[in-house]
Amino acid sequence: MSRLSTLGAALVVGACAAFPLAVGAKLPAPTPEAKAKADEAKNKAAWTDKVAAYQLCQSQDRVAAHYLKAAGKGAKSATAMPPCADPGAYVPLAAASAPPVVAAASAPPPLEQAGAHSPPKTAATPYNTKATDAEQKGLVKK
User: Fold this and answer.
1) Is the separation of the CB atoms in 78 and 115 below 8 Å?
2) Residue 140 lies inside a defined structural domain of this protein
3) In the prediction, which pLDDT does 133 show?
């Protein structure tokens, strides 16, 4: 073996031995300013998520309205959904520390009581029957 390859191998072994020491070092505790900045960033991210959910709810309502309009006058939504909740304007944490004013509004019932997970009615016939819709309803097939 040459001297250069022996020296290179020793450097690699030394670097590998020092790596766990560098990884195991503890970071210093964050300053109060850094902690406040991180909390503010979390608050802003949570508000942004609420705005995105509100915009998604509105777009789903528009799509459902368009579908029901195209389906005809007699078409109705299968289940009643609560209205989209507007998150309002962004409130920084310093202003949010004041106690919020809560309006006395009744909360929607849980999904189990609302019947959102259940079909609107029990099926009278299996969905894979070969009878036509008119035959199932007792009408004359044309």
Assistant:
1) no
2) no
3) 73
What whole-number distance in Å separates Cα of residue 40 and Cα of residue 44?
A: 6
C-alpha separations of 55 from 43, 58, 61, 113 in Å: 19, 5, 10, 26
User: How many structural domains comprise the chain?
Assistant: 1
- Residue 105 domain-assigned? no
Question: Do residues 91 and 50 lie in contact, with contact meaning Cβ atoms separated by under 8 Å?
Answer: no
Strand, helix or coil for residue 33: helix
For CA atoms 127, 129, 132, 133, the dihedral sign is: negative
Assign 107 to helix, strand or coil: coil
Residue 54 lies in a domain: yes
The alpha carbon of residue 134 and the mean position of all alpha carbons in its chain are separated, in whole angstroms, by: 42
Going residue by residue through the chain (142 aa), what tens digit of pLDDT does each one get?
Answer: 566 577 667 667 766 666 665 567 788 999 999 999 999 999 999 999 999 999 999 999 999 888 888 888 666 767 778 889 999 999 988 766 655 555 656 776 665 655 555 555 666 666 666 777 777 777 776 5
Q: Which domain holds residue 70?
A: 32-91
Residue 63: inside a domain, yes or no?
yes
Largest CA distance in the chain: 99
